[in-house]
Amino acid sequence: MSVRHALLALLSEGPKYGLQLRQEFEARTGEVWPLNVGQVYTTVARLERDGLVASDDGDEPGPQKAYRITPAGGDELATWLRTPPAAEAPPREELVIKILVAARLPGADVVQIIQAHRRHLVETMSRFTRLKQDAAEDDLGLLLVADAEIFRLEAFVRWLDSADARLRHHTPAAVPPAVPSTAANDAAATAANDAAATAANDAAATAASSAPTTRRGTGTGARAAR
CA–CA separation, 56 vs 18, rounded Å? Predict the structure, then answer.
């Protein structure tokens, strides 16, 4: 929003005081964008320095100092109104940055974050809708500003819905948890138990095969003793 050019537009209607400029600016914009009177005096002082406005009531800004637009100021205003906004890089919208960061942040539930911001935007749209319903039919500034905000917020809601769908589509499926390292220990223990069991079976088989030989030896010795 160019406060500089908005004040030039107000002054194009005739001379005005600083306080009057603030009041008319807020009335023209539906009182949605409050303007500090100090900002008004700072801006008109710069306009006067640049030769775009003039005053005949002294050098110091104040409530009794009236300003009027100069021919150069009229040309500046006309040029600004006809000139399209500069084609610059996309603005650094905080909401967009938050979603971009959350999408890559470990542990962040980006879907939940998107839904939280979506609810907030929808609630804000509802407030502007109620503001329009309560506004007077001839309050053109407020109606135009409310429409602009509703359309802007609606665009962000649509972007969040698109981002949610895109992230759900591109986010890889959950990877099954890795096999714990103790599994290797369990396998080793199983192998050791199998080996132990095999050894026990071998030992039992050996004992069973050697048992008759032992009995025969005992019997021979007994006969020899007799």
Answer: 14
User: Which position has the higher pLDDT, 147 or 35?
Assistant: 147
The answer to whether the predicted template modeling score (pTM) of the entire model surpasses 0.85 is no
Torsion angles phi and psi, residue 86, rounded to 5: -65, 140
Could you tell me the pLDDT band of residue 87, with boundaries at 50, 70 and 90? Answer: low
The beta strand positions in 41-191, using DSSP E, are 53-54, 66-69
pLDDT of residue 221: 41
Contact, 141 vs 27, CB < 8 A?
yes
Burial category of 96 from C-beta neighbours within 10 Å (exposed 0-12, middle 13-18, buried 19 and up): middle
Give pLDDT, residue 86. Answer: 73
| φ/ψ bin of 14: left (φ > 0), alpha (ψ from -120 to 50), beta (otherwise) | left
For residue 193, tell me if it sits in a domain: no
Q: Are 98 and 158 in a shared domain?
A: yes
Q: Are 60 and 44 in contact (CB under 8 A)?
A: no
**Of 147, 119, 151, nearest to 132 (Cα)?**
147
Which residue range is the domain that position 43 belongs to? 3-82
Number of domains forming the structure of the chain: 2
In this prediction, residues 101-109 reach a mean pLDDT of 92
CATH of the domain at 62: 1.10.10.10
